[in-house]
Write a structure and sequence with these properties.
By secondary structure, this protein is mainly alpha-helical. It folds into four domains: 150 residues, Dimethylsulfoxide Reductase, domain 2 (3-Layer(aba) Sandwich); 58 residues, no CATH class; 62 residues, no CATH class; 35 residues, no CATH class. Helix content is 38%, strand content 6%. Helix 3 runs antiparallel to helix 6 and helix 3 packs across helix 7. The longest helix is centred in the middle third of the chain and has 15 residues. The chain is globular. The relative contact order is 0.10.
Length: 362
């Protein structure tokens, strides 16, 4: 953050001057590490064990913000009796149907609530045992809760059992972090969370570049929820994106495969009709269920009154991709004699690229 987000890091330094504790977890020792109160040289790729260890520590020490956990999370909600965690099913989630090749979501529901489709689906999967009269929403009034957090099937206790494996010894073994340093970080985090104080997590693109990056961030969210650091001033989980290179290139956009608003570029496979493009990119639920509105809005912004429903909003006037036209693929095509040459603006990949030798060959 000190190197790549110096403007934002200014506020971190001002917070430290007012007494905040700055902890930097990174395999490398960087400029951020040099300014931190605690630097943790974690083994690359072991973040789930690290965060899992912190969750277990908070639970075992009963250092979680109980009033917050009960009021603002699903921790008191009781899961159905037939729910099974992954360790009971050789790593699979509850409800896997080998015959159908998909999950039956019945056991994922809360006790007393009707069966509903999983996120991203409008309909229940084939073979679901849900009755035809199952409600299409979870009626909160029917969810069974235990606000003492003692029921063995409440989310809190399921969470406790799931993370019980991440002992300080396991964290040390997997992450390469001495137990004394792990506990020092855990205690500092607990001291700086709760009713009077909050802690923030700042993660960089490194987390999202892992194949399990989603689990990293979700595990951090669990930890922050336990400590009461979500939805409160000074808390949260903050993504440090490369605003000029990543956020900028996707928003403007300058990448070959997207339109403004993160809409994918059409390909020759979409043919000449807007409907086929929409069908290939619209999700059943969530943000991208509104995909048709986004692309029509963009076409109207470009073509104005000339874009009408009758002429497919001038969809046919758009260019098409014929394949992967990314930078490295194009260089490989050059090396193979398929592309005679091209202009590269703002960089010298033959010098600064991780694949400089290939770039020079191309």
């Amino acid at each position: 953050m000190a190197e790549n987000h110096p403007v934002g890091f200014q506020w971190v330094m001002e917070a430290r001057e007012r007494g905040a504790t700055l902890i930097h977890v990174d395999p490398r020792f960087t400029r951020t590490s040099a300014m931190a109160d605690i630097h943790v040289p974690i083994r690359p790729g072991s973040d789930i064990a690290w965060l899992g260890g912190l969750i277990r520590y908070v639970l075992e020490k009963e250092a979680y913000f109980k009033e917050y956990v009960v009021a603002f999370t699903n921790a008191p909600v009781i899961l159905r009796e037939d729910f099974r965690d992954t360790e009971d099913l050789d790593g699979l989630f509850s409800g896997w149907s080998a015959k159908d090749g998909e999950y039956q979501v019945d056991s994922w529901q809360y006790e007393g609530a009707g069966t509903v489709p999983a996120a991203g689906h409008k309909h229940l999967p084939a073979g679901s045992t849900a009755g035809a009269d199952a409600p299409d929403k979870r009626p909160a009034t029917l969810q069974q809760r235990d606000e003492t957090l003692q029921h063995p099937r409440c989310v809190f206790q399921v969470l406790r059992r799931h993370f019980s494996r991440y002992t300080p010894e396991i964290v040390e073994q997997i992450c390469g972090v001495p137990r004394s340093l792990f506990e020092k970080v855990a205690e500092a985090l607990i001291r700086n969370s709760g009713r009077e104080r909050t802690s923030a997590f700042c993660y960089a693109v490194g987390w999202t570049h892992h194949s399990v990056g989603v689990q990293y961030i979700r595990t951090a969210a669990i930890l922050q929820l336990l400590l009461g650091n979500i939805g409160r001033p000074g808390g949260g989980i903050i993504a440090l994106r490369g605003h000029a290179s990543i956020q900028g290139s996707t928003d403007i956009p300058t990448l070959f495969n997207i339109f403004p608003g993160y809409l994918p570029m059409p390909t020759t496979a979409h043919g000449a009709t807007l409907d086929r493009y929409i069908q290939g990119n619209t999700s059943p639920t969530g943000w991208w269920s509104e995909f048709p509105k986004y692309i029509v809005s963009l076409l109207k912004a470009w073509f104005g009154d000339a874009a009408t429903k009758q002429n497919d909003y001038l969809w046919a006037a758009l260019p098409r991709l014929t394949g992967d036209h990314s930078h490295l693929t194009t260089v490989v095509d050059m090396a193979d004699g398929k592309v005679p040459g091209y202009f590269v603006m703002g960089e010298n990949p033959a010098v600064g690229s991780p694949n400089a030798a290939l770039q020079r060959k191309g």
